[in-house]
Amino acid sequence: MSGLYSPILEQAGFLKRKAAAVVEQWVAQLDGAIQYWQFTVPISLVASDVVEFEFVGFENSGTYKRFFGSTDFVLGLDTGVSGSEFRLNRIEYATLDSEAIGNGALIPNRGKLVCSVTESRDINTLGSIGETRNIRAAIYNFKVIRNGTVIHEIRLNNKAQGATQLATVGNINAFMPNYTNAVWRKP
To answer: Residue 1 CB: number of other CB atoms within 10 A?
Structure first.
């Protein structure tokens, strides 16, 4: 009788279901010096696209550290001159944990950012401007949403994938230059 199922027997406690396996959660803490996420090819944003991601472990490590930005440095979100406040470039609106933010808003240790861009631009990194001005934080659950549909998603939290994190939506992956296993920590 091992293949039969009965809701009445389950309610009476005669059937035992196995608990789902607990999946460990990890994030990759960028070091603020030589580590960042590089896309395998640039992601092309169009005006009104939404860029969404979460971060944790933010530490002020200097001026103009980039959360994300265009390859031509025109569009993006960085830490500004103080290193501790958001600076929005060509961003129509931005929210942090569902609250509207603007230039000068203090950057907390963690949060979920949602930004709508005003121009069509390519982005090729997270946590960096090119290979410089790297941010010290873990960035994960990255998405690009166009007209309400997720077109790119890279979770950036799969320890088993190591330096190259595979897309869950779309076909653009991300890899971390100067990767070591030491980047992984609990969120």
So the answer is: 4
Distance spanning both ends of the chain, measured CA to CA: 44
The SS3 call for residue 82 is coil
Single-letter code of the amino acid located at 92: E
| pTM of the entire predicted model | 0.84
Q: What secondary structure letter does DSSP report for 166?
A: P
Lowest-pLDDT range, 52-56, 129-133, 144-148? 129-133
Please tell me the distance from the alpha carbon of residue 154 to that of residue 138, in angstroms, as a whole number: 13
d(Cα 50, Cα 55) in Å, to the nearest integer? 16
121, 74 contact by CB (below 8 A): yes
> Which residues, in sequence order, are CB contacts of 30 under 8 Å at separation 6+?
36, 37, 127, 134, 135, 136, 137, 138, 139, 176, 183
Q: Are 187 and 33 in contact (CB under 8 A)?
A: no
